[in-house]
Amino acid sequence: MVVLLGSYNGWIVALSFAIAFFTSYQALGLSKKVTSTSGFINWGWLLVSGLVMGCGIWTMHFVGMIAFHLPMKVEYNFFKSSISVIASILASLLAFYVTGTKVSHVKLILSSLLMASGIVTMHYVGMSSMKTDIMTISYDPILWTISVLIAAVASYVSLRLFVEMKRNYNNILMKSVSAIMMAVAVTGMHYVGMEASSFWCIDPQFITSTSIENAPTNLLIIVSVVIVLLVLLTWLAQFWEQAMFRKMAYTDSLTGLSNRHAMNEFFRNTPLQHRRMAILFIDLDQFKYINDTLGHDFGDVLIQNMGERLRKNSLDKNFVFRIGGDEFMLVITYVDKNEVITFVEGLLADIRKPFLINNHRLEVTGSIGISYSNEHGDTKDSLLKAADTAMYYAKNSGKNQFREYNDDMAMKISRRMDIEKGMREALIHKNFELNYQPKWNTATNRPIGFEALLRYTHPQLGVITPNEFIPIAEETGIIVAMSEWVLERACLDCVEWNKENRAEYVVSVNLSIKLIESNMLHGITKRALEISGLNPTLLELEITEQMIMNCGEDVNQQIAPLQLLGVNLSMDNFGSGYSFLGSIDQLSFQTIKIDKEYIENFELPTKRAILNTMISLANSLNIQLIAEGVETKKQIDFLTEAGCHLMQGYYIKKPMPFHEVDPWLKEL
Ligand code: C2E
Ligand code: MG
Question: pTM higher than 0.90, yes or no?
């Protein structure tokens, strides 16, 4: 037996260290993602980091072997070489798994031992793959032990630094130092292990005079392929990660539909100039109410279900976007606009179909606004704004319908916005006015009270009618503060004219459904009575049938305590709703005001019959009846003859400002 003296190629030794460093750096970086992800993605990162580290150790070893020259030809056993790579991959996987989450000191030691065992096993199994009939290897026990210790200690230091970095620093320098330590573990173990090894040849005839490169060509090829694969694997992992990030950034997490970013991207990348595209802006009609009453979790499930329904409906799922809470956008290409209309009608019908969520059967409707590319602009902003405006119109026209954008809408919306802005300012400077219209008793030829009617004059747009500004005030919530002012002003004015005339004229104030919904009616009214000192029996609150139908219970709860104080309740526009007889016995009314439509058409036999029924009904229920909108002497005569003596209308007096009330009363 002859001992063989080996030598090293310094450049390749350096290369082996570089490979160990590069793969450790990449593997540690990849394994860091195990902590920050979950589910199968987590396992994916673990697998990739284990593969990169394991293959890295293996590659380093064989590059190290390529750097090592012996004065005889050496063959490698393919089976053992393969086993060695499996050992290093498995050990790396386990080590990264242990340090994946909640790392304790024990786990860190366990992980280092696993990593070291992988490095050591890989090395010595790799070495044994060189053994042949003519060559054998023996090991120096001390150096062998030192090689194992180096692997364990350097792995520990590396993993410790790495865990520390994950917790606190997360910077490249720390990761590099950690990777250097891992490279020290791998290469240190390898080269000390090589020092521990003695190579023996059984027959000197196989020895050559000069040292030769031991690595056979196929080993060189395999190592090169593995290195290329490693680089590719890390690139692929990073590419995949970026793709995932991109997908996450462009996907709505609740519905899985494309989100607002994706929509922006869509408009950036789609040339709209030469295409016929319809932009559909969809908004659910009752979503806020559902969210408030059934809870946000329920609302989320509804949005998910709705998203799924829209996705199924759309011709191309990439063209459905969730762009806000309950707002969706759908883009469709078309040849003829009729196609769009048919599609939208089908869509609305589909949205209306009931959902079954947590055993609740739920029916929701949607409002859709449509804009067309080129016709309404060719940029995202112009098309979205147009579709949004049209959607707004669909909502204001009663919901559960669609509207195609037209320029008139924009003008109306801008007027609406001007009025809203103006009213907000008017609220601050108290720039509203109250007009009063007398309620007249034909039996005594004297007024019994006045109805307060709000007036608003916009600084630029001029006088705005209540029929225009009240709905805007209701929609924007301005009505609550507005009503507070009206109630207070009306009570103060009532006190004033009664003082002047030593009389007890009643003041009636119109209420808004929004005031009831805000739950502030009771407080606001009490405050107005306190501030003005008005006797509560001289205040009358007018509510409509619509309010009773929509929130009768709330109205009752808030009005009943006021009625106990003596405040009167009046049913306004009686007969204009759908269930007018049914609504009378829901609350205790002192007055009913017949809608002016009946007075205007009193000559029609049907209206006359209904008027007569109303009059006898009010008499038998002992409720005061007031006819609204009296404009002619004929109307007065008919009403008086039929038994209705109280009335209000232009024939008697048009609504007048407060300063005219007193002179008017004095003239009577
Ligand atoms: P309303 O409560 O039915 O008020 C009666 C409306 O009929 C008033 O219109 C009044 O000017 C008008 N009117 C009175 N006599 C005649 C007549 O002989 N012929 C005709 N054609 N109309 C007559 P106005 O002032 O434009 O108010 C419209 C509506 O705005 C009111 O209807 C009321 O619902 C609402 N409104 C007015 N002021 C307030 C307010 O302070 N708060 C609330 N919530 N709503 C108000
Ligand atoms: Mg009224």
Answer: no
